[in-house]
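Collaborator request, handled under Task 6.
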Amino acid sequence: MSTTGVDDVREPHRAVVVRGEHAGVECEVAAVGEERFHVVSYDFGVKAHSPKLLSERGCRVTVLEGTVDLDTVRAEAPDGIFVSNGPGDPAAVESALDAIRVLAAEGVPIFGICLGHQLIARAFGAETYKLPFGHHGGNHPVRNLDTDTVEITSQNHGFAVRAGEDGTIPGAPDLRLTHVNLYDGTVEGVAHRALPVFSVQYHPEAAPGPHDSRYLFDRFIGLMESRAAE
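Structure tokens returned to the collaborator:
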């Protein structure tokens, strides 16, 4: 997370600590009020508003460099993993794939957005491809297939997860399609059929921007609550 991003979340009620005791750890954002969960966020270009939204929901957020290995993530003993947005071709970003698969299999809830969505899909066998022009702007309509509702979303990406003609995700039978772009039918969200893993292509943390998809952060909290109750 950039220095500017750290400044953005440094408010009187939200302590940001720049940690340096372990390689790969960038900073830590304190929970607002009582700490309920500890979330590790991969930083592939994370926006400061994502840790802010999590901290407002009672999460202490430790931001790690996108290149860290599984052992570094495990050392933080996270209750959940946030896989951030970021630029570029997801096929060139291999560092988080093993951790996503291993920690998901152990039952750790995982939530990804934008590039993080693409990495989660690739971790479970899906393919990604370059869009002809990309999706950019703050008014993209997306259909939530689970609720049959439409969300207005903010988007800024040049790649997408490949979908099959029958609504499946080729190469990733354990993933199901949850959100679809109403402009061109591209994949906007997936969820694992058995594990607590889900992701969306767009930016639910957009600020300024539409707030239709903030419920996804609450869904992530709900998965961590369910795991803690086991």
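The cover message to the collaborator said: "Residues 1-14 have pLDDT under 50 and may be disordered. The domain at 3-228 is CATH 3.40.50.880 (Rossmann fold). Please let us know whether this matches your experimental observations."
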